[in-house]
Task: structure prediction
Amino acid sequence: MGIWSNITRVFVKEVDEPTENVENRSFLQQMGTSIDDIISSFGFNKSNSGQNVDSKSVLGLSAVWRALTILSDSIASLPIEVVQKTAENTTLNAVRHPVTRLLTISPSPLFTPYTWIHTMVAHAALTGNAYAIIKRERVTRYPKEILVVEPHRVTAHILDGDKLVYKIDGINKTYKADDIIHFGGLSFTGLAGINVLETLADNFGLALANQEYLAKFFADGATLSGVIKHPGRLDDNAMRRLRRSWESSYGGSSNSGKTAILEQGMDYEATGLSPQQAAAGETKKLTIADISRIFGVPQFLLEDLDRATFNNIEHLSLLFIKHTIRPWCKRIEAELNRKLFPLDEQGEYIARFDLDDLYMSDLDSRGKYIETMMKWGVLSRDEIRAREKYNPIADGSGAKYFVPMNMQDPTEPKPELEKNIPGEDQ
Result:
Protein backbone atom coordinates (compact mmCIF):
# COMPACT_ATOMS: atom_id res chain seq x y z
CA MET A 1 0.00 0.00 0.00
CA GLY A 2 1.83 3.05 -1.23
CA ILE A 3 5.36 1.65 -0.65
CA TRP A 4 7.11 4.21 -2.86
CA SER A 5 5.19 7.10 -1.29
CA ASN A 6 6.09 5.86 2.20
CA ILE A 7 9.80 5.69 1.30
CA THR A 8 9.87 9.19 -0.14
CA ARG A 9 8.04 10.65 2.84
CA VAL A 10 10.88 9.55 5.15
CA PHE A 11 13.37 11.77 3.32
CA VAL A 12 11.18 14.67 2.25
CA LYS A 13 10.70 17.36 4.89
CA GLU A 14 7.31 19.00 5.04
CA VAL A 15 7.49 22.77 4.76
CA ASP A 16 4.73 24.84 6.33
CA GLU A 17 3.16 27.56 4.24
CA PRO A 18 3.78 31.19 5.25
CA THR A 19 1.42 32.43 7.92
CA GLU A 20 0.63 35.75 6.33
CA ASN A 21 -2.59 36.19 4.40
CA VAL A 22 -1.80 36.88 0.73
CA GLU A 23 -5.07 36.99 -1.16
CA ASN A 24 -5.50 36.16 -4.80
CA ARG A 25 -6.66 39.58 -5.88
CA SER A 26 -7.76 38.65 -9.40
CA PHE A 27 -9.93 35.85 -8.00
CA LEU A 28 -11.41 38.08 -5.31
CA GLN A 29 -12.12 40.85 -7.81
CA GLN A 30 -14.06 38.40 -9.95
CA MET A 31 -16.03 37.12 -6.96
CA GLY A 32 -16.53 40.56 -5.43
CA THR A 33 -15.68 39.37 -1.90
CA SER A 34 -13.00 37.63 0.13
CA ILE A 35 -13.01 34.02 1.21
CA ASP A 36 -12.99 35.16 4.83
CA ASP A 37 -16.39 36.73 4.21
CA ILE A 38 -17.70 33.51 2.71
CA ILE A 39 -16.54 31.19 5.50
CA SER A 40 -19.43 30.72 7.89
CA SER A 41 -19.46 31.74 11.53
CA PHE A 42 -21.74 31.37 14.51
CA GLY A 43 -22.11 35.15 14.93
CA PHE A 44 -25.39 36.99 15.45
CA ASN A 45 -27.50 37.70 12.37
CA LYS A 46 -30.25 40.29 12.83
CA SER A 47 -33.47 39.33 11.06
CA ASN A 48 -36.18 41.70 9.89
CA SER A 49 -38.44 40.33 12.63
CA GLY A 50 -36.05 41.84 15.19
CA GLN A 51 -34.81 38.46 16.41
CA ASN A 52 -31.12 37.67 16.83
CA VAL A 53 -30.44 34.51 14.82
CA ASP A 54 -27.52 32.37 15.91
CA SER A 55 -26.86 28.68 16.51
CA LYS A 56 -28.09 28.77 20.10
CA SER A 57 -31.35 30.60 19.41
CA VAL A 58 -32.15 28.53 16.32
CA LEU A 59 -31.63 25.26 18.19
CA GLY A 60 -34.33 26.50 20.57
CA LEU A 61 -36.81 25.77 17.77
CA SER A 62 -38.01 22.20 18.18
CA ALA A 63 -38.34 21.70 14.41
CA VAL A 64 -34.70 22.74 13.83
CA TRP A 65 -33.51 20.51 16.66
CA ARG A 66 -35.42 17.57 15.23
CA ALA A 67 -34.33 18.22 11.63
CA LEU A 68 -30.64 18.38 12.57
CA THR A 69 -30.95 15.28 14.75
CA ILE A 70 -32.71 13.29 12.02
CA LEU A 71 -30.22 14.35 9.34
CA SER A 72 -27.10 13.78 11.46
CA ASP A 73 -28.29 10.50 12.98
CA SER A 74 -29.35 9.09 9.60
CA ILE A 75 -25.90 9.65 8.07
CA ALA A 76 -23.86 8.77 11.18
CA SER A 77 -25.71 5.46 11.58
CA LEU A 78 -24.80 4.27 8.07
CA PRO A 79 -22.04 1.63 7.84
CA ILE A 80 -18.88 3.00 6.24
CA GLU A 81 -16.16 0.78 4.78
CA VAL A 82 -12.83 1.04 2.99
CA VAL A 83 -12.51 -1.16 -0.11
CA GLN A 84 -9.71 -1.84 -2.58
CA LYS A 85 -10.37 -1.94 -6.31
CA THR A 86 -8.30 -4.58 -8.09
CA ALA A 87 -7.18 -4.84 -11.71
CA GLU A 88 -9.79 -7.57 -12.22
CA ASN A 89 -12.53 -4.98 -11.55
CA THR A 90 -13.41 -6.52 -8.21
CA THR A 91 -13.51 -4.95 -4.75
CA LEU A 92 -11.98 -6.30 -1.56
CA ASN A 93 -12.62 -5.10 1.97
CA ALA A 94 -9.42 -3.36 3.12
CA VAL A 95 -9.89 -4.25 6.77
CA ARG A 96 -6.20 -3.73 7.63
CA HIS A 97 -5.81 -0.35 5.98
CA PRO A 98 -5.01 2.46 8.49
CA VAL A 99 -7.96 4.51 7.26
CA THR A 100 -10.35 1.63 8.04
CA ARG A 101 -9.57 1.80 11.74
CA LEU A 102 -9.85 5.58 11.67
CA LEU A 103 -13.35 5.55 10.15
CA THR A 104 -14.79 2.47 11.86
CA ILE A 105 -13.11 2.25 15.28
CA SER A 106 -11.59 5.50 16.55
CA PRO A 107 -11.11 8.72 14.59
CA SER A 108 -9.88 10.29 17.83
CA PRO A 109 -9.53 9.40 21.53
CA LEU A 110 -12.19 12.06 22.12
CA PHE A 111 -15.08 10.53 20.18
CA THR A 112 -16.41 7.55 18.21
CA PRO A 113 -16.93 7.42 14.42
CA TYR A 114 -20.66 7.95 15.01
CA THR A 115 -20.07 11.08 17.08
CA TRP A 116 -17.57 12.47 14.59
CA ILE A 117 -19.86 12.11 11.56
CA HIS A 118 -22.86 13.30 13.58
CA THR A 119 -21.08 16.47 14.69
CA MET A 120 -19.64 17.26 11.26
CA VAL A 121 -23.01 16.91 9.53
CA ALA A 122 -24.70 19.10 12.17
CA HIS A 123 -22.04 21.80 11.67
CA ALA A 124 -22.33 21.70 7.88
CA ALA A 125 -26.13 21.66 7.82
CA LEU A 126 -26.56 24.55 10.26
CA THR A 127 -23.67 26.84 9.31
CA GLY A 128 -22.79 25.72 5.77
CA ASN A 129 -19.34 24.32 6.63
CA ALA A 130 -17.71 21.60 8.72
CA TYR A 131 -13.98 21.32 9.46
CA ALA A 132 -11.66 18.74 11.00
CA ILE A 133 -7.86 18.66 11.42
CA ILE A 134 -6.02 15.57 10.12
CA LYS A 135 -3.08 14.51 12.29
CA ARG A 136 -0.69 12.17 10.47
CA GLU A 137 1.95 9.60 11.33
CA ARG A 138 5.44 11.08 11.21
CA VAL A 139 6.92 8.40 8.90
CA THR A 140 4.09 6.91 6.83
CA ARG A 141 2.04 10.12 6.79
CA TYR A 142 -1.12 8.06 7.06
CA PRO A 143 -3.84 9.81 9.10
CA LYS A 144 -3.86 8.74 12.75
CA GLU A 145 -6.39 11.17 14.24
CA ILE A 146 -9.18 13.50 13.16
CA LEU A 147 -10.14 16.46 15.34
CA VAL A 148 -13.36 18.43 14.87
CA VAL A 149 -13.02 22.23 14.81
CA GLU A 150 -15.90 24.64 15.36
CA PRO A 151 -16.68 26.42 12.06
CA HIS A 152 -16.55 29.92 13.55
CA ARG A 153 -12.85 29.43 14.44
CA VAL A 154 -11.74 28.67 10.86
CA THR A 155 -10.75 31.16 8.17
CA ALA A 156 -9.40 30.36 4.72
CA HIS A 157 -6.74 32.17 2.68
CA ILE A 158 -5.32 31.85 -0.82
CA LEU A 159 -1.53 32.06 -1.06
CA ASP A 160 0.55 32.63 -4.19
CA GLY A 161 -2.56 32.70 -6.33
CA ASP A 162 -3.51 29.03 -6.17
CA LYS A 163 -2.78 27.58 -2.70
CA LEU A 164 -5.68 27.21 -0.30
CA VAL A 165 -4.72 27.24 3.38
CA TYR A 166 -6.63 27.44 6.64
CA LYS A 167 -5.98 29.29 9.88
CA ILE A 168 -7.71 28.33 13.11
CA ASP A 169 -8.35 30.77 15.91
CA GLY A 170 -6.30 29.78 18.95
CA ILE A 171 -3.73 27.73 16.99
CA ASN A 172 -0.58 29.49 15.80
CA LYS A 173 -0.18 27.46 12.63
CA THR A 174 -1.27 27.55 8.99
CA TYR A 175 -2.76 24.29 7.71
CA LYS A 176 -2.51 23.13 4.13
CA ALA A 177 -5.76 22.17 2.47
CA ASP A 178 -4.63 18.51 2.43
CA ASP A 179 -4.59 18.49 6.24
CA ILE A 180 -8.10 19.86 6.72
CA ILE A 181 -11.28 17.89 6.05
CA HIS A 182 -13.85 20.39 4.88
CA PHE A 183 -17.30 19.80 3.51
CA GLY A 184 -20.42 21.88 3.50
CA GLY A 185 -23.61 22.77 1.72
CA LEU A 186 -24.51 24.98 -1.22
CA SER A 187 -21.57 27.04 -2.48
CA PHE A 188 -20.99 29.63 -5.22
CA THR A 189 -17.19 29.32 -5.08
CA GLY A 190 -16.57 25.66 -4.37
CA LEU A 191 -14.27 26.74 -1.53
CA ALA A 192 -16.80 27.31 1.24
CA GLY A 193 -20.48 26.74 1.82
CA ILE A 194 -22.90 29.63 2.09
CA ASN A 195 -23.71 30.62 5.66
CA VAL A 196 -27.15 29.10 6.32
CA LEU A 197 -27.89 31.14 9.44
CA GLU A 198 -27.03 34.41 7.70
CA THR A 199 -28.72 33.74 4.37
CA LEU A 200 -31.96 32.41 5.88
CA ALA A 201 -32.00 34.67 8.95
CA ASP A 202 -35.49 35.98 8.14
CA ASN A 203 -36.93 32.45 7.93
CA PHE A 204 -35.46 31.51 11.29
CA GLY A 205 -36.32 34.94 12.71
CA LEU A 206 -39.99 34.51 11.82
CA ALA A 207 -40.08 31.17 13.62
CA LEU A 208 -38.35 32.66 16.67
CA ALA A 209 -40.67 35.68 16.75
CA ASN A 210 -43.75 33.47 16.46
CA GLN A 211 -42.49 31.23 19.25
CA GLU A 212 -41.80 34.24 21.49
CA TYR A 213 -45.24 35.68 20.76
CA LEU A 214 -47.04 32.46 21.68
CA ALA A 215 -44.93 32.02 24.82
CA LYS A 216 -45.79 35.54 26.03
CA PHE A 217 -49.44 35.05 25.12
CA PHE A 218 -49.75 31.93 27.28
CA ALA A 219 -47.62 33.42 30.05
CA ASP A 220 -49.98 36.39 30.32
CA GLY A 221 -53.06 34.17 30.53
CA ALA A 222 -54.58 32.16 27.73
CA THR A 223 -58.10 31.76 29.14
CA LEU A 224 -59.12 34.95 30.97
CA SER A 225 -58.20 37.51 28.34
CA GLY A 226 -60.75 40.31 28.27
CA VAL A 227 -61.89 43.64 29.66
CA ILE A 228 -63.02 44.49 33.24
CA LYS A 229 -65.73 47.17 33.30
CA HIS A 230 -66.34 49.35 36.37
CA PRO A 231 -69.45 51.57 36.63
CA GLY A 232 -67.54 54.39 38.30
CA ARG A 233 -64.16 56.05 37.98
CA LEU A 234 -61.10 54.53 39.68
CA ASP A 235 -58.14 56.55 40.92
CA ASP A 236 -54.59 55.42 40.24
CA ASN A 237 -54.21 53.54 43.52
CA ALA A 238 -57.44 51.63 43.01
CA MET A 239 -56.47 50.83 39.41
CA ARG A 240 -53.12 49.42 40.47
CA ARG A 241 -54.69 47.42 43.31
CA LEU A 242 -57.32 45.95 40.98
CA ARG A 243 -54.76 45.06 38.32
CA ARG A 244 -52.40 43.47 40.87
CA SER A 245 -55.20 41.51 42.49
CA TRP A 246 -56.55 40.26 39.14
CA GLU A 247 -53.19 39.19 37.75
CA SER A 248 -52.13 37.41 40.92
CA SER A 249 -55.43 35.50 41.09
CA TYR A 250 -56.17 34.78 37.43
CA GLY A 251 -53.09 35.64 35.35
CA GLY A 252 -50.81 33.00 33.84
CA SER A 253 -51.52 29.52 32.57
CA SER A 254 -51.31 28.06 36.12
CA ASN A 255 -54.48 29.98 37.05
CA SER A 256 -56.37 28.99 33.93
CA GLY A 257 -59.92 27.80 34.64
CA LYS A 258 -60.44 29.58 37.96
CA THR A 259 -63.75 31.26 38.67
CA ALA A 260 -63.53 35.06 38.79
CA ILE A 261 -65.32 36.94 41.60
CA LEU A 262 -66.15 40.58 40.87
CA GLU A 263 -67.29 43.36 43.26
CA GLN A 264 -68.68 46.90 43.21
CA GLY A 265 -70.81 46.30 40.11
CA MET A 266 -67.82 45.38 37.92
CA ASP A 267 -68.38 43.33 34.80
CA TYR A 268 -65.94 41.09 32.87
CA GLU A 269 -66.16 40.81 29.10
CA ALA A 270 -64.05 38.13 27.41
CA THR A 271 -62.61 39.26 24.11
CA GLY A 272 -61.45 35.84 22.86
CA LEU A 273 -58.53 35.38 20.50
CA SER A 274 -57.57 38.20 18.25
CA PRO A 275 -56.99 37.48 14.55
CA GLN A 276 -53.24 37.79 15.21
CA GLN A 277 -53.41 35.25 18.03
CA ALA A 278 -55.49 32.86 15.95
CA ALA A 279 -53.03 33.12 13.07
CA ALA A 280 -50.04 32.39 15.31
CA GLY A 281 -50.81 28.67 15.32
CA GLU A 282 -51.01 28.56 11.53
CA THR A 283 -47.78 30.53 11.29
CA LYS A 284 -46.08 27.89 13.44
CA LYS A 285 -47.10 25.21 10.93
CA LEU A 286 -45.75 27.31 8.08
CA THR A 287 -42.41 27.70 9.84
CA ILE A 288 -42.19 23.92 10.23
CA ALA A 289 -42.65 23.60 6.47
CA ASP A 290 -39.95 26.26 6.00
CA ILE A 291 -37.49 24.40 8.20
CA SER A 292 -38.33 21.17 6.40
CA ARG A 293 -37.34 22.77 3.08
CA ILE A 294 -34.15 24.29 4.48
CA PHE A 295 -32.74 20.99 5.75
CA GLY A 296 -34.36 18.66 3.23
CA VAL A 297 -36.12 16.64 5.93
CA PRO A 298 -39.76 15.61 5.23
CA GLN A 299 -42.36 17.21 7.47
CA PHE A 300 -43.65 13.91 8.83
CA LEU A 301 -40.18 13.29 10.32
CA LEU A 302 -40.59 16.58 12.20
CA GLU A 303 -43.75 15.14 13.80
CA ASP A 304 -46.01 17.17 11.50
CA LEU A 305 -48.46 14.46 10.40
CA ASP A 306 -51.36 16.60 9.16
CA ARG A 307 -51.06 15.40 5.56
CA ALA A 308 -49.22 12.14 6.16
CA THR A 309 -50.71 8.84 5.05
CA PHE A 310 -49.38 5.31 5.15
CA ASN A 311 -48.75 5.30 1.39
CA ASN A 312 -47.07 8.69 0.97
CA ILE A 313 -44.84 8.24 4.05
CA GLU A 314 -43.09 5.31 2.36
CA HIS A 315 -42.64 7.32 -0.84
CA LEU A 316 -41.41 10.41 1.04
CA SER A 317 -38.93 8.27 2.97
CA LEU A 318 -37.39 7.08 -0.30
CA LEU A 319 -37.23 10.67 -1.58
CA PHE A 320 -35.48 11.68 1.65
CA ILE A 321 -32.84 9.00 1.05
CA LYS A 322 -32.45 9.86 -2.64
CA HIS A 323 -32.41 13.67 -2.49
CA THR A 324 -30.99 14.38 0.99
CA ILE A 325 -29.08 11.47 2.53
CA ARG A 326 -27.39 10.21 -0.65
CA PRO A 327 -26.03 13.65 -1.75
CA TRP A 328 -24.64 14.25 1.74
CA CYS A 329 -22.94 10.83 1.70
CA LYS A 330 -21.41 11.49 -1.72
CA ARG A 331 -20.13 14.88 -0.55
CA ILE A 332 -18.50 13.32 2.52
CA GLU A 333 -17.05 10.39 0.56
CA ALA A 334 -15.44 12.69 -1.99
CA GLU A 335 -13.66 14.69 0.72
CA LEU A 336 -12.53 11.63 2.67
CA ASN A 337 -11.16 9.90 -0.44
CA ARG A 338 -9.28 13.04 -1.45
CA LYS A 339 -7.75 13.80 1.95
CA LEU A 340 -7.26 10.51 3.84
CA PHE A 341 -5.50 8.43 1.17
CA PRO A 342 -2.05 9.22 -0.26
CA LEU A 343 -1.87 10.28 -3.90
CA ASP A 344 -0.63 6.91 -5.15
CA GLU A 345 -3.54 5.13 -3.43
CA GLN A 346 -6.33 7.43 -4.53
CA GLY A 347 -8.76 5.59 -6.78
CA GLU A 348 -7.44 2.22 -5.67
CA TYR A 349 -8.73 2.56 -2.12
CA ILE A 350 -12.04 4.28 -1.46
CA ALA A 351 -14.23 4.92 1.57
CA ARG A 352 -17.95 4.55 0.97
CA PHE A 353 -21.24 4.46 2.86
CA ASP A 354 -23.60 1.49 2.57
CA LEU A 355 -27.11 2.77 1.84
CA ASP A 356 -28.72 -0.67 1.41
CA ASP A 357 -30.11 -0.68 4.95
CA LEU A 358 -31.97 2.56 4.29
CA TYR A 359 -33.43 1.46 0.96
CA MET A 360 -34.68 -1.78 2.54
CA SER A 361 -36.23 -0.36 5.67
CA ASP A 362 -38.93 -3.04 6.06
CA LEU A 363 -38.78 -6.85 6.04
CA ASP A 364 -41.06 -7.18 3.01
CA SER A 365 -38.78 -5.06 0.79
CA ARG A 366 -35.72 -6.83 2.15
CA GLY A 367 -37.21 -10.25 1.42
CA LYS A 368 -38.02 -9.31 -2.18
CA TYR A 369 -34.51 -7.94 -2.68
CA ILE A 370 -32.89 -11.12 -1.36
CA GLU A 371 -35.14 -13.32 -3.48
CA THR A 372 -34.39 -11.35 -6.67
CA MET A 373 -30.63 -11.23 -6.14
CA MET A 374 -30.40 -14.96 -5.47
CA LYS A 375 -32.86 -16.06 -8.16
CA TRP A 376 -30.93 -14.28 -10.91
CA GLY A 377 -27.52 -15.44 -9.76
CA VAL A 378 -26.26 -12.05 -8.61
CA LEU A 379 -25.54 -13.22 -5.06
CA SER A 380 -24.92 -16.64 -3.58
CA ARG A 381 -26.61 -17.83 -0.42
CA ASP A 382 -23.42 -17.30 1.58
CA GLU A 383 -23.11 -13.72 0.30
CA ILE A 384 -26.69 -13.04 1.29
CA ARG A 385 -26.11 -14.63 4.70
CA ALA A 386 -23.05 -12.43 5.19
CA ARG A 387 -25.13 -9.32 4.46
CA GLU A 388 -27.72 -10.48 6.98
CA LYS A 389 -24.99 -11.11 9.59
CA TYR A 390 -25.22 -14.93 9.42
CA ASN A 391 -22.33 -17.39 9.14
CA PRO A 392 -21.73 -19.29 5.84
CA ILE A 393 -23.36 -22.69 5.33
CA ALA A 394 -21.07 -25.26 6.92
CA ASP A 395 -20.93 -27.78 4.04
CA GLY A 396 -19.88 -25.14 1.49
CA SER A 397 -23.03 -25.43 -0.63
CA GLY A 398 -23.88 -21.81 0.04
CA ALA A 399 -21.16 -20.61 -2.37
CA LYS A 400 -23.11 -21.80 -5.43
CA TYR A 401 -25.04 -19.46 -7.73
CA PHE A 402 -28.46 -20.29 -9.19
CA VAL A 403 -30.29 -19.09 -12.31
CA PRO A 404 -33.66 -20.08 -13.80
CA MET A 405 -33.58 -23.16 -16.06
CA ASN A 406 -35.25 -21.36 -18.97
CA MET A 407 -32.39 -18.88 -19.31
CA GLN A 408 -30.23 -19.07 -22.48
CA ASP A 409 -27.36 -17.13 -24.04
CA PRO A 410 -28.93 -15.25 -27.04
CA THR A 411 -25.69 -15.59 -29.05
CA GLU A 412 -25.85 -19.38 -29.02
CA PRO A 413 -28.02 -21.33 -31.55
CA LYS A 414 -31.31 -22.55 -30.23
CA PRO A 415 -31.49 -26.34 -29.67
CA GLU A 416 -33.62 -28.21 -32.21
CA LEU A 417 -36.75 -29.80 -30.86
CA GLU A 418 -37.20 -33.51 -31.44
CA LYS A 419 -39.93 -34.26 -33.96
CA ASN A 420 -42.27 -37.12 -33.28
CA ILE A 421 -43.13 -38.48 -36.76
CA PRO A 422 -46.05 -40.97 -36.87
CA GLY A 423 -44.98 -44.49 -37.98
CA GLU A 424 -41.34 -44.12 -36.95
CA ASP A 425 -39.85 -46.42 -34.41
CA GLN A 426 -39.68 -44.76 -31.08
Observations:
- The chain has three domains: 3-203+289-345, 226-271, 363-410.
- Residues 363-410 form one domain.
